[in-house]
Design goal:
This protein is α/β, with parallel strands linked by helices and 339 residues long. It is built from twelve helices and twelve strands.
Length: 339
């Protein structure tokens, strides 16, 4: 049985016109009513057809931006770059910070559908994609950013995380390091997993393996600092530490110094992202730079192209994955291994 607005109204205990107001964002709907209707929509897995979307009027010129967190510096910079580029192109941005919570993702998807967004840019914190089916079935163009969203978003824009991992390991190996530890977060992140893949592949090609890997679930200084301290205490043979992000690497620098050692004299430390903080920490952090703003701007360009194709009902498009090159930035936190 096909779900209709009448079914939603019955489950929500309200009228068809009230459901229509919530779906179309036309007229007043109290927060309590909106919550009831959205709960019924989620329960019935209702998605408007493409024809229904077109009947509701002109494009909304609104874009949904879903990110795991905006208090993590990387995602804050990314959100700003995307919002500014969308604004320049005449779009408004609905920023959804999901707190790396799958239920939050699902609720935001329901909200974006009700707001009739023209497209969505999303960095999902999870491998699961079922809750994104509603966007795909509503024919809303989607671009995945910083990680792929297989089966949902045919378009993805991300830094070349695996190559970045290789560059990190290669730099330390060229400096003579053989006992290399890894500390980072979040463990479930697709970009972090790709960086680990690159690191281990480069080391394996040189007949090596990481001496230790310590990963946290939360991407923060507070979560990675104790891991770095424990790594130093338990593995005295280490001469270098790879941080899977700049935040993790900065935490490692603090842990080394708090142990009474020096960077890079006693330990070399390298990070990934090239956040502004990387150039201000002491010593200045050697890191892999990914063009965060460039990734965001390219994602906007791809989404606008998808929206234009959707409006003219063009031919089915081929899936594409854009990998943006990364660069090694040599600063002061890495040096030759002590002999």
């Amino acid at each position: 049985m096909t779900t209709s607005i009448r079914h939603i109204a019955k489950l929500a205990g309200t009228s068809v016109s009230s459901v229509s107001r919530v779906l179309n964002n036309s007229g007043y709907a109290s927060p309590e009513l909106r919550e009831r209707v959205e709960a019924a929509i989620r329960t019935l897995n209702y998605t408007p057809s493409k024809g229904a979307r077109m009947l509701r009027g002109a494009p909304s010129r609104m874009i949904g931006l879903m990110l795991p967190s905006i208090d993590v510096p990387f995602f804050g910079i990314l959100a700003h770059a995307i919002e500014q580029e969308l604004f320049r192109r005449g779009y408004q941005t609905l920023i959804c910070s999901t707190a790396e919570n799958m239920d939050h993702e699902a609720r935001y998807i329901s909200m974006l559908l009700s707001q009739r967004v023209d497209g969505v840019i999303v960095a999902s914190a999870f491998g699961s994609t079922e809750h994104f089916e509603a966007l795909r079935e509503a024919h809303i163009p989607i671009v995945a950013i910083d990680r792929e969203l297989p089966g949902i978003a045919g378009e993805a824009v991300m830094a070349d995380h695996e190559e970045g991992g290789r560059l990190m390991a290669r730099h330390l190996i060229e400096l003579g390091h053989r006992a290399i530890g890894i500390v980072g977060a979040p463990a479930h992140s697709q970009p972090v997993q790709l960086r680990l893949l690159g690191i281990t592949a480069e080391m394996a090609g040189n007949g090596m393996a990481p001496a230790a890997i310590a990963m946290a679930e939360e991407h923060s200084f507070a979560a990675t600092y104790p891991l770095a301290r424990e790594l130093l205490a338990s593995r005295p043979e280490l001469t270098a530490i790879i941080g899977t992000t700049d935040i993790s690497a900065i935490a490692a620098i603090h842990a080394v110094q708090d142990h009474g050692f020096s960077v890079p004299r006693d330990y070399s430390v390298i990070g990934f992202d090239d956040l502004p903080e990387a150039a201000y920490v002491f010593p200045r952090l050697t890191t892999i730079a990914q063009p965060i703003r460039g990734v965001g701007e390219q994602a906007v360009r791809r989404l606008e192209a998808l929206i234009d194709e959707d409006q003219v009902d063009g031919e089915p498009r081929m899936d594409s994955l854009i990998k943006v090159p990364v660069t090694l930035i040599r600063r002061d936190s890495t040096g030759l291994v002590r002999t």
